[in-house]
């Protein structure tokens, strides 16, 4: 009566907290997902979760199946990974470059998890802040680039990892706390704290300030997220950061945050690779691992 797809669906429901987001994560329409759950409940002759609750509240039967999913799905994934290694070989090279200062929070656990299962794949990591990583990827110097700024380039393939909201963080007593959302002109009087990256590679400029013809009063840079937060909390400026990077500080009420624009500024993080490597078994498994780690550990992200 119970199939692996049912367990994957229930796990996605728990992790996503809603039917809409769960459907996106497992690449089904919402109606198809609802039909699958209804079919399972009819087979089992019991309800698995309480409707119209957010986050979803599972019944005892639903929780029992979730416990089964937590036991069984990692075993299935491990078996699939072993078969991929046997079929496609275990060796390879994965030189990764990252264009995101705050991405180390999820990339390090991803690499650690991946290394356990692909010990023969040669791993290396660098940052793309002092050179242009996409030409290096095309030349073969790199194998994977994590970027939020995809450029159409012959021979390069982009895979979306997840979407996130870029929010403006500020001190809790800042004047902009009184606003429901931030308009570009609100930053004309502010010191904007950014990572030390060119403005044309920062979404707060290319997608928010530049289209409105607005510039901040001053710009200050910092390499470390924790230092950015210290400066913001001290009233030395404001900063646009991914919602998941600011989550811990917001939970501790260390800072405040507001959306950029009425609808928020949503961005997507991509993995770029060469076309000839996109189907390599270890590359496919690394991307799957990255998605699993990010959706398990990052708050506020969406399926891309």
SSE layout and pairing:
Blueprint lengths: L3 H13 L2 H7 L4 H15 L4 E2 L6 E2 L1 H29 L3 E7 L5 H14 L3 E7 L5 H7 L4 E4 L8 E15 L20 E4 L8 H7 L8 E4 L3 H9 L5 E4 H9 L4 E4 L5 E10 L6 H17 L7
The quaternary organization reads as: single chain
Q: How many H/I helices?
A: 10
Helix content: 40-55%
User: Count the strands?
Assistant: 11
Rg from Cα: 22 Å
Categorize the overall geometry.
Answer: globular
At the fourth level of CATH, the homologous superfamily of the largest domain is Periplasmic binding protein-like II
- Largest β sheet strand count, sense and barrel closure: 7 strands, mixed
CATH class of the largest domain: Alpha Beta
Report the uncertain regions: none
Overall domain count: 3
What does this structure look like?
It comes from Marinobacterium marinum. Keywords: Activator, Amino-acid biosynthesis, Cytoplasm, DNA-binding, Methionine biosynthesis, Repressor, Transcription, Transcription regulation. InterPro entries: LysR_HTH_N, LysR_subst-bd, MetR_PBP2, WH-like_DNA-bd_sf, WH_DNA-bd_sf. This protein has 304 residues and is α/β, with parallel strands linked by helices. The chain has 3 domains: 85 residues, Orthogonal Bundle (Arc Repressor Mutant, subunit A); 97 residues, D-Maltodextrin-Binding Protein, domain 2, CATH 3.40.190.10; 104 residues, Periplasmic binding protein-like II (D-Maltodextrin-Binding Protein, domain 2), CATH 3.40.190. Helices cover 42% and strands 21% of the residues. The protein is built from 10 helices and 11 strands. Strands 3, 4, 5, 6, 9, 10 and 11 form a 7-stranded mixed sheet that branches. Strands 1-2 form a two-stranded antiparallel ribbon. β3, α5 and β4 form a beta-alpha-beta unit. It is globular. The model has no long low-confidence stretch (mean pLDDT 90).
């Amino acid at each position: 009566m119970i199939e692996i797809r049912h367990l994957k669906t229930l796990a996605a429901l728990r992790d996503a907290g809603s039917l809409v987001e769960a459907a996106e994560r497992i690449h089904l329409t919402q109606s198809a997902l609802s039909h699958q759950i209804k079919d399972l409940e009819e087979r089992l002759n019991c309800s698995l979760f309480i409707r119209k609750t957010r986050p979803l509240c599972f019944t005892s039967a639903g929780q029992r199946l979730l416990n089964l999913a937590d036991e069984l799905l990692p075993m299935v994934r491990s078996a699939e990974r072993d078969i991929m290694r046997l079929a496609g070989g275990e060796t390879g090279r994965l030189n990764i470059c990252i264009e995101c200062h705050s991405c180390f929070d999820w990339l390090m656990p991803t690499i650690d998890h991946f290394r356990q299962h692909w010990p023969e794949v040669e791993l290396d990591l660098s940052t793309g802040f002092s050179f242009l990583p996409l030409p290096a990827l095309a030349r073969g110097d790199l194998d994977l680039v994590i970027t939020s700024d995809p450029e159409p380039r012959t021979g390069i393939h982009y895979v979306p990892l997840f979407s996130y909201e870029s929010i403006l963080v500020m001190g809790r007593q800042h004047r902009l706390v009184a606003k429901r959302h931030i308009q570009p002109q609100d930053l004309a009087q502010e010191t904007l704290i950014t990572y030390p990256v060119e403005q044309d590679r920062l979404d707060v400029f290319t997608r928010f300030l530049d289209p409105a013809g607005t510039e901040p009063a001053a710009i200050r840079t910092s390499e470390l997220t924790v230092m950015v937060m210290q400066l913001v909390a001290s009233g030395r400026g404001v900063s646009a950061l991914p919602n998941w990077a600011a989550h811990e500080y917001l939970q501790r009420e260390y800072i405040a945050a507001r959306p950029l624009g009425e609808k928020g500024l949503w961005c997507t993080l991509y993995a770029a690779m060469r076309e000839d490597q996109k189907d390599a078994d270890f590359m496919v498994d690394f991307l799957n691992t990255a998605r699993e780690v990010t959706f398990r550990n990052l708050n506020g992200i969406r399926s891309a």
